[in-house]
Amino acid sequence: MAEPYAPVPDDWQRALAVVAHPDDLEYGPALAVAAWTAAGREVSYLMVTRGQAGMDTVTPEEAGRIREEEEIRAAALVGVKEIEFLDHPDGTIEYGLPLRRDIAAAIRRHRPDILVTLNFHERWRGGDWNSPDHRHVGRALLDAASDAGNRWIFPELAAEGLEPWKGVRYVAVGGSPFAGHAVDVTGCMDQGVAALEAHRSYLDYLDDLGPGHPMADARGFLEKKVRTFGERFGGVPAIAFELIGV
């Protein structure tokens, strides 16, 4: 039988969530964000792309505009007031110094206690292959957490007024097959569903991929997820994370 999840520590005040695409957080981690902001914690978002390549029937320019607007609405529904978008290319994000620098700069700007991201391992829990965007962003975030505290890595950041920040304690990875911690999201379901449904254009596109596509049923998808995680967390609705010290 699987080990019970330990609680994600709550002795922090500021978090920065860094993911590849608009909607990445809404498939589960945003429920934890809603619980955190309700408890008075500050959470900001950084999107590495604008989701330009996510809709085959829509031009990248229009898709990016739509998905950015939808993410801003989704974030507000779970109490996030500050959200930034980078302009890395959706679908072809490259791991490398430019990505590390951009994320390190954001960490210095926001000065978070913890970082949040999406699964960056090769596979998802069910064994499906993960996308290169998720893999590259997560690995760059782990490296950027260290870069942000070193004055001599990307020294131009300090020259721009972004002083080093060594306060990041760990990265919380949603959707990880190696999760060992969880957050109680009791009372957050309606917010989480509304946040996922804010991506209406994208969900409608997914629904067009075939009847009953699981990602198009926001409430059913999230209720199943928190119920499954809750079986290892005292029977309460939960979202699971892998915690990695940095």
Task: Give a quick summary of the entry.
The protein has 246 residues and is α/β, with parallel strands linked by helices. The chain has helices spanning 29-38, 60-77, 97-110, 132-147, 156-159, 189-197, 200-207, 218-230, and strands spanning 6-7, 14-19, 42-47, 82-85, 114-118, 170-174, 181-184, 238-245. It is globular, with a radius of gyration of 17 Å.
Low-confidence stretches: none
CATH superfamily: LmbE-like
Q: Decide which structural class fits the backbone.
A: alpha/beta
- CATH architecture heading: 3-Layer(aba) Sandwich
| Helix content bin | 25-40%
Please report the distance between the alpha carbons of the first and last residues.
Answer: 30 Å
Helix-strand topology string? EEHEHEHEHHEEHHHE
Tally of DSSP β-strands = 8
The overall average pLDDT, rounded, is: 94
**Helical segment count:** 8
Principal-axis shape: globular
For the sheet with most strands, the description reads: 8 strands, mixed
Number of structural domains: 1
Oligomeric grouping of the chains: single chain
Strand content: 15-25%
Enumerate the strands of the largest sheet in spatial order, edge to edge or round the barrel: 1-7-8-6-5-2-3-4
> Class in CATH?
Alpha Beta
CATH topology: Rossmann fold
Q: Radius of gyration from the CA trace? A: 17 Å
What does this structure look like?
It is a single chain. By secondary structure, the protein is an alpha/beta fold. The chain has a single domain (6-245), classed as Rossmann fold, CATH 3.40.50. The protein is 37% helix and 16% strand. The chain has eight helices and eight strands, in the order ββαβαβαβααββαααβ. The longest helix is centred in the first third of the chain and has 18 residues, at 60-77. It is globular and about 50 Å long.
